[in-house]
Amino acid sequence: MPNPLQRRSSVPAGLGCPFAVAAGVGVVVAVALGIVMAGTSAPSGPDRWAADIVSGWWPAPGTIAYAIDFVGRPWVVVAIAAVTALLAVGLRRRRLAVVALVAPAVTGLVATIAKPLAGRTIHGTNLSYPSGHVAAATTLAGVLALLAVDVVHAGRVLGMAGFLIGALASGGVMAVDQVAISAHYPTDALGGLATAIVVVVAVATAVDRAADRLPAARRLFRT
After folding, report:
1. Cα 121 from chain centroid (whole Å)
2. Chain Cα centroid distance, residue 162
3. Of the residues 165, 178, 181, 192, which has the fewest C-beta atoms closer than 10 A?
4. Which phi-psi region, left, alpha or beta, contains residue 68 (left: φ > 0; alpha: ψ -120 to 50)?
């Protein structure tokens, strides 16, 4: 029978290694794309190919597209993060409540720092890599997926699948939206997805380690 303290960790039991692999892949993708696209201001070949698919499938994005875009605004992200944290507290997942608040903030900070470092632009001087909207949507959904996986006590395979499907599905919707409204190139969106996966895994792991090792944190997270 699973240890109840393990069930209330940010990283569900058994997912430590899969999470590390996912984070490693995310780092490679985000950094590699950032290096390849650094200083560019035009779509790459893969960008044009992916954008053509999106425009063919969604030729006239309108109200729905801008409603999806609205979800990525900072104050909306903060509101969703706060509601998720309250839900986690109500479900007695205090560590995940902290992750729900910290992960979106870290994602936003990382994206803000990375954009001038990459120096990629769209529509003139607008910094575009990685996409902050896509990163935010992926982060929020990733935390919600972690909460759902923890509540149902999913095993390693279903737990990892649930986390990835939840995070990437939400991030994918935002990615398509950002490309459809010409706010970002597809590779910007992919960089945002990868960045968010890395941040969620890193923050969840850091919260668990702090809760297990620091006396003050152990008292805070005692169930």
Report:
1. 22
2. 14
3. 165
4. alpha
Query: Amino acid identity of 16?
Result: G
Structure tokens, 10: 């940010």
Minimal CA–CA distance to 133: which of 82, 83, 203, 181? 181
Inter-residue contact 210 to 217 (CB < 8 Å): yes
**Joined tokens for residue 112:** 């803000």
E strand or H helix that includes residue 84: helix 74-90
Structure confidence by residue, pLDDT tens digits, 104-160:
999 999 999 999 999 999 999 999 999 999 999 999 999 999 999 988 887 888 888
- Between the alpha carbon of residue 170 and those of residues 32, 79, 177, 200, 214, the distances in Å are 23, 17, 11, 14, 34
* 141: its two tokens: 């959904």
* Measured distance CA(159)–CA(149) in Å, rounded: 6
As a whole number of Å, the end-to-end CA separation of the chain is: 18
Residues 6+ apart with CB under 8 A from 223: 4, 5, 8, 92, 94
CA angle 188, 59, 52 (to 5 degrees): 50
